[in-house]
Amino acid sequence: MSELKFVVAVDGSHNSREAFEITTREFLGPEDHITIIHFFSDEKVYLPYNFKREYIYDDYENYLISFYSSRKYSLDFVPRDTKIKTAEQIQQYAETNSGGLLVVGFSGAKGPKEDPTLMSSAVDHNVKFGKVPLCIVKKNFSREELGGFHWLVLVDGSEQSLRALEMTFRLLDTARDQVTLLHAYNVSHVDYREIYMPMIYERGVRGTFEEFACGVNIAKELVDYINSWETDFHFIVMGVSGMGTSNRSSIFNVGSVTQNVLKYAKTNIIINK
Fold first, then answer.
1. Which of 13, 116, 160, 241 is the S-S candidate for 255 at Cβ 3.0 to 4.6 Å?
2. Each residue of 65-102: pLDDT tens digit?
């Protein structure tokens, strides 16, 4: 299997630590590489100790050096560019350094907001403008505790959904995980079962195909449907434009389905670009 380059953005927060832990524990394969990035400003002398770059660097280095060869990882601590936002600097770094998957926590250094649907600026910016696939961590699930992950992949026949499924194959554990493919529709109905299920079978993955007929508000109804599923999903994988180009936002080119899933789904989300 070819190398996948993970880029994990950390800031001293609990959520970014969870993003790091789930990447190293559940995703990092024998041929893969992980880079920990942190953008700092030494002018912020008022920061609590656990948010200062020296502490963050030592914390992650001590963990990585205990489990991995130095060829397996790198830590890149970069001064803040005051001319741009940190979220934009994260985006530029991931794209310049050929990141295969950028992993970030849903909330930032300030912690979860009063409104739990409000995401960090790093998530918001990279969903809208980033070119690198993005994993947004809301919950630090463990395969060991669960016996395996349940992946939900939203499919609509598009090239993006095919790439989303390929990313799922790259990250899942064939022996323990299962995949549900979900096709949601509101007007036209095409049965994509014959396109996607052979891909599942060829990989030896346990998988099922589901369909959901939505009404007018496909974005809200789909999220309600996902959140009411009888069994929990641990990851939702989808394309950035949601259920096709007809639902793309005219401002940011991000589908309304993607935006709603990102805000209101109760689990981790991977957005393919």
1. 241
2. 999 999 999 999 999 999 999 999 999 999 999 889 99
